[in-house]
Structures are given as structure tokens and as C-alpha cells.
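Worked example 3. Consider a protein that binds protoporphyrin IX containing FE.
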Amino acid sequence: MTSQPPRMTTTGGAPIADNQNSLTAGPRGPVLMQDYQLMEKLAHQNRERIPERVVHAKGWGAFGTLTVTHDITRYTRAKVFGAVGKKTDLLIRFSTVAGELGAADAERDVRGFAVKFYTEEGNWDVVGNNTPVFFIRDPLKFPDFIHTQKRHPRTNLRSPTAMWDFWSLSPESLHQVTILMSDRGLPPSPRFMNGYGSHTYSFWNDQGERFWVKFHFKTQQGHKHLTNDEAAQVVGRSRESYQEDLFGSIEAGDFPRWTLQVQVMPEADADKTPYNPFDLTKVWPHADYPLIDVGVVELNRNPDNYFAEIEQAAFSPSNVVPGIGHSPDKMLQARIFSYADAHRYRLGTHYEALPVNQPKCPVHHYHKDGAMRFFRNDTGNPDAYYEPNSLGGPAQDPSVAEPPLRLSGEVGRHDHRAGNDDYSQPRALFTLMDQGQKERLFANIAAAMQGVPQAIVERQLGHFALVHADYAAGVRRALALGEGAGRPETAIP
Ligand code: NDP
Ligand code: HEM
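Given these inputs, the predicted complex is written out as C-alpha cells:
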């Protein structure tokens, strides 16, 4: 700490003599337009907000490390997994889906679990949730689904009717709806929940063999949950309970950890499983594809500036590195487009040059100008600004090519619901809940259905009955008891 504070300047670097008083004609004013320091200050304030994320607007994040504990090099050549003991820096941003930037933290909602690994061969992002599945399996449904989660255009309120109308007309949502309404739908802090890559991704190894893979981040803090009533009390006390808990525990040196595990499926198995392994509404049962330990993720450093490092963080499923690839999952392909598109809109053309998004390895590309082109992209030869060139500019490296993937099938808008079993996996989940968990599930659903027209409720009960007779009967009983009536609004009111 120096005794003299640094000298305050304009953004142009000129020293400022007075930051307390505007430049005026006489002590009573008016202000002179030549007070460019005042103009600059007001103009900057007007530009302090950027568009919030269209979904997952409310979030909490921190930096940390992945430490590899087990050798999985037989599945992937990704350098991040190159050796046991290897450490890689990472950033995690947790979020809720539906709430706006100022939403209360303790609301029932799916939680985002987005991880950026700064690997030596580029940034690898796993942009997942705290659930292993999702509400829909065809990306054409995503904007409609999100519209039902956000505000009604006329009332400007969240609409339980829209939510249950959509869900009851989309039985592929049953699995995720069951998780959302279970205890796991309302953790007291991100520390007490799992993360899942959810989609099927791919690994490929040095021999060019491909494997399908799912990523799991298992909390080492244990699972905890809030009931709706407990959450209402938390929100009454603080709308920022997640930020307080995550930031506070890291400041106190109590670093949260997750065990990184993978499920691995040989490429040829994809034709044999009784379910489509690329269907985002399905898990791979552990008995078929057991969890394999990979490493430990630890969060140990809070950001210094929330806006610069968390709000401006840009995660995208398109960020993969050699040894890790995508899969035929339709939802994943849409996301590969959607996120970078959102970042260009939300943050600007060169968002990947912002310090939090910048890879921690050399970056050499031929993209040129655009707003905020402030970074150098030098390769030692300013004449090599096109490709191919004979001037020694950056060149492709065929050694990192992904092995070819054979695809077949007729082009068409194939019915994504045809022949799909939307009930067995929700049944497996319902069956593993104890009676207390089931009762809370029934009560949470009944609370979320308050005010929904009976025809929609009946349609949804029909789906619950196809999962398990006890499921439908339990919700019907909770509805008759008026469970949840008069409860405060939540993300899913
Ligand atoms: P297992 O008994 O091997 O695994 C059950 C899984 O369910 C565990 O991963 C457990 O997570 C998780 N779980 C427990 N309670 C809940 C809940 N309320 N909400 C969400 N997950 C919960 O069985 P299977 O692999 O055969 O799967 C059976 C069902 O378990 C599936 O249909 C799916 O609904 C659910 N599930 C399965 C996962 C998978 O990848 N196979 C992953 C997560 C859920 P934990 O170990 O962290 O306590
Ligand atoms: C955020 C689109 C499905 C997890 C976003 C954003 C968009 C988007 C545009 C905002 C990005 C930004 O501004 O930075 C979509 C589309 C989907 C889809 C089009 C389906 C077709 C999913 C699924 C998951 C998921 C299935 C999880 C498995 C997330 C997370 C964030 C996010 C965690 C926040 C990332 C962060 O913390 O910055 N999504 N999404 N999304 N989405 Fe999705």
C-alpha cells in the first residue's frame, strides 16, 4: 500500500483536478457543455449495462482447478487428461434458467452448471445443468419452451398455465419435470448439487477410436435441498443466498469440490441400446455404463470483478478440443450454433479476446477487424494476413483431425416422438425415491399447478399415471388437499 493514492485521470489519461464539482458559470450554474469530464462520466454510466443472457441470466461463479486422478488416455487424446496429477485452470458459472438478472437465488428451477477448462489446446466448455436430462429433445421446441418459462406478454407475470400446457403436450418433458419438482429442484447453494454435461459427447484416442461419453460432476459436499416453505423464508431474508454462500465459503478457504466422472460407450454400441443414446431426455443407466473416475474439480478463487469475469464469461458447447467432440444429438447441434451467436450479440464480435474468455494458449487465426479489435494476433509476419500464404503464416495441423463419422438416414422432419418411451426412466427415478421424497414431489407439483385449468391438470395427471399409478394418485391427493395454495411465487409458480 503506497501512502500516495494513484492520480485520477480521464479515460484519455489526463489528470483530473476536481471530481466533486461540475464546471458552471457562477456558483448557481448552469453547467457548461465544455465540462467533458461530466459528459464522459454520464456517457459511461449510460453504457454500463449489456443485454442479460436470454436464459440463465442470474448466475454465480468462481475460478478453480481440475486435477486428474485417474488415467483415461485409452479413451481420449485430450491433453487436459494427459497425465494423472495434471492440473488445469477452470471457471464455473452456476445459474438459474428462468429468472432475470435480479431474480432471487432460492427459486425452484433447473440450475446451469457451466465449466470452462482453459486447456493447453484451447478452451473446452461443458455447458451443462444440475440435471442429467432436459425438457425437450428437438431444438425446434426450445424458443417455445423458454417462452412458457418467462413472462406472459400481457400480464407480464410467469404463467403456470403456459408451463403445464406445454409440458402436458410434450411428454418427453416428464423426466426433467420430475427432477425439477423433486428435492433436487431447489438446492440451498450450488455447492450442494451435481453437474451434468447432459448431452452425449465423444472422445477419440490416439488410435483414432471413437467413444461416446457423458460427463458427471458429483458434489463432494453432499446433496441438500430446501422445501418451498424454507425457500420462501430464505428469500424473505436474502435474495442473494447463493452468492453469499458460494462467495463466502471460498473467501473462508472452504473450497467446494466435485468428482469428475464419465460414462463411456464404445461407438458401435449406439446401434444396440434399447434407447437412443443421443436423446437428451434419457440417461444411460449406470448398470449398463458405470461411472468412471477422472478427477477432482475445486473452486478456490473468487472473481475480483463480477461483471468482467462472470457477466462477460461466454460459455459455448462449440468449444471442444482435440480428443473431445460432439455427437449426433439434435439439441447439441442447435446449441453449437446458438451460444456463439448469443455472445456476438451480447458481448461483441471479439468476445473471445476478453480476458475471462481468452484461451491460455497461443491463438492464431485470420479473423480480422470489427468493434473492439484491440488485441494483437501477431505471428511475426504482418504480411501473412490471408491463408494459404507462402510467408510462414499459421497453418492447419492434420494431426488433430477428428476420426470420420459415418452417418446415414433420409433427410426429413422425422417425428421425434414416434416410438419413444417417455415413461420408463421417470418411473426408475420415481421408484428410487423414498416416501418422504415422493410426498414432497407431490406437494411441489400441486403447488406449481395452482390456478391451472382443470383440463390441463388432467392431461398432465394422465402422463403421471403412465409413469406410476402412485405418482398420479399422490399428485391428485396433494391437489385435493390444496397443497401449496397461497405459497409465494417461485420460478415455476
Ligand atoms: P442408479 O440407481 O444407478 O442411479 C440413480 C441416480 O439417481 C444417482 O445418480 C443419483 O444421484 C440420482 N438421483 C437420486 N435422487 C435423485 C433425484 N431426486 N433427482 C435426480 N437424480 C436423483 O440408477 P440408474 O442409472 O439406472 O438411473 C435410474 C434413474 O436415476 C434414471 O432414470 C434417472 O432418472 C436417475 N439418474 C440417473 C443418472 C444416470 O446417469 N444414470 C444420473 C442422475 C439421475 P447421486 O448419486 O448423485 O445421489
Ligand atoms: C445459456 C440457448 C439448451 C445450459 C444459454 C444461452 C442461450 C442458450 C442463447 C445464453 C448464452 C449467453 O448469452 O451467454 C440454448 C438452446 C438450447 C439450450 C438454443 C437448446 C436447443 C440447453 C441445455 C442445457 C443448457 C440442454 C444444459 C444441458 C445452459 C447454461 C447456460 C445457457 C448452463 C448459461 C451459461 C453461462 O453460465 O453463461 N442457452 N440452450 N442449455 N444454457 Fe442453454
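Take a moment to read the result before moving on. The beta strands are 59-68, 87-96, 111-119, 122-129, 195-196, 201-204, 210-219, 257-266, 292-301, 324-325. The chain has a mean pLDDT of 95.
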